[in-house]
Write a structure and sequence with these properties.
Layout lengths: L4 H11 L4 H8 L3 H7 L9 H11 L3 H4 L9
Helix pairs in contact: 1-4, 2-3
Length: 73
């Protein structure tokens, strides 16, 4: 299964119990844009935005770029 960075950002944010308002405070990125970012195509997210967000979430940028989850049947 392919996991896109926008989905991963939302997943990590929710797992850590961080609201969009709090993420806005930590990153300086408007919360309305952050909400849009979590829904936009992953290829439209700037690397610099992903770096700010990963730091604010307390994860590495690599954690957000997890590309493939293997599923054993």
């Amino acid at each position: 299964m392919l996991i896109k960075i926008n989905v991963k950002i939302k997943e990590v944010r929710e797992e850590k119990g961080i609201s969009l308002r709090e993420l806005e405070r930590r990153t300086g990125i408007d919360r309305h844009y952050l909400a849009d970012l979590e829904k936009m195509p992953a290829d439209e997210i700037l690397v610099s935005e992903a770096v700010f967000i990963s730091r604010a979430l307390g994860v590495t940028i690599e954690d957000l770029f997890v590309a493939v989850t293997l599923e054993i049947i």
